[in-house]
Amino acid sequence: MSVDMLTIPAKCVSESRISELDYNNIEFGKIFSDHMLVVDYKDGEWQQPQIMPYGNMSLSPATSAIHYGQSIFEGMKAYKDANGDILMFRPLDNFKRLNISAERMCMPEIPEDIFMQGLEQLLRLDAAWVPPTDGCALYIRPFMFATDDFIGVRPSSNYRFTVFTCPVGAYYGMPLKVAVEPHYVRSAEGGAGYAKAAGNYGAALLPARKMQERGYHQLIWTDAKEHKYIEESGTMNLMFVIDGKLVTPPASTTILKGITRDSVLTLARDMGYTVEERKIAIDELVEAYKAGKLQEAFGTGTAATIAQIATIHYDGLDMELPAIEDREISNRVAVALDKIKTGKVEDIHNWVYRISL
Ligand code: PMP
């Protein structure tokens, strides 16, 4: 089915809730904009998309996603530039990744026109919800889940694709203390670690909570076979500066291939830094730390953007890393990335999708 943007019917709220929003004090993920996009898949095709007031959905207790986990999502952000235009950051990359997740979870692909035109129309309608404040953004949550009311393990025939949005402030305020996870694993080769599938997050909650009880904000996942190599952390990819080089684990089937990760690597290369995508053994980090060569460590992700890591714990050793202000590469890249996202510099990589109001 081909969708004409002008034909996405919108049932609008009678009164916006925007006056409840305090731009200077936004709690992450708790306030939702006025509208959402909803599209159902049935009889083998996507039906007419609709925009409607953000609100509860009615579901059968037998809804297949709840029982068997066919549920995938994305996370992306939009900003406002100085003229008040809305700038979405790399939405086509989120679109592609959603369909990679869909394929892995045996779900139908979303057509590009539904995703992009649906987003554009939703953001035009809720433009007032895109915060103009520095450091804030409109977080966009596209997701798809299986809607058959049927008990039995098989792929659903019916699905729902929905997008809602929420204005957000900064994700992590302070530099993080993280610890290498010695026992639990997030994913293994042949698994679904590269998909943004809901179950990956559910299974990570217990290990993360145990690490928090030990005084760390997050854990660092290691490989499933040997617990020897660095994978990723929470909802972030991981990067280190070792002896002046930016190094990060390679994109593989066991980690989520972050869009922020790709943006950071691209900008660091543009700036002339040496970038290496390769396996990083924990022992290498410890050796570099002991030799005074572990200069920076940080996580990258849409929610956090660049989250500095102050401490890495491994096997009884707390590695205390250099002060944040001394971290040349991550600080330079963070500033450059922010300027691109908010339209303050030329977008040479064509990452920004502009919606002029
Ligand atoms: N890894 C995981 C497990 C994540 O959930 C995320 C957040 N989407 C990332 C890495 C970072 O990806 P991105 O930069 O695309 O947000």
Could you say which overall geometry the principal axes of the C-alpha atoms support?
globular
Question: Which CATH class of the largest domain?
Answer: Alpha Beta
Low-confidence stretches: none
Task: Please give the largest β-sheet.
Answer: 9 strands, antiparallel
Hetero groups: 4'-deoxy-4'-aminopyridoxal-5'-phosphate
| Helix residue percentage | 10-25%
Following the backbone from N to C, one meets helices and strands in this order, namely: EEEHEEEHHEEEHHEEEEHEHEEEHE
Number of domains: 2
How many strands appear in the DSSP assignment? 18
Distance between the termini: 27 Å
Q: Helix/strand/pairing class, anyone?
A: alpha+beta
Mean pLDDT: 95
Return the CATH architecture of the largest domain.
Alpha-Beta Barrel
Beta content comes to 25-35%
- Count of DSSP H/I helices: 8
Radius of gyration: 21 Å
CATH fold-level topology of the largest domain:
D-amino Acid Aminotransferase, Chain A, domain 2
Task: Report what the structure shows.
- The chain is α+β, with helices and mostly antiparallel strands and 357 residues long.
- The chain folds into two domains: 5-169, D-amino Acid Aminotransferase, Chain A, domain 1, CATH 3.30.470.10; 176-341, D-amino Acid Aminotransferase, Chain A, domain 2, CATH 3.20.10.
- 23% of the residues lie in helices and 27% in strands.
- It has eight helices and 18 strands.
- Helix 6 (259-270) crosses helix 8.
- The protein is globular and about 60 Å long.
- Bound molecules: 4'-deoxy-4'-aminopyridoxal-5'-phosphate.
- 4'-deoxy-4'-aminopyridoxal-5'-phosphate binds at residues 75, 232, 235-237, 256, 258-261, 300-302.
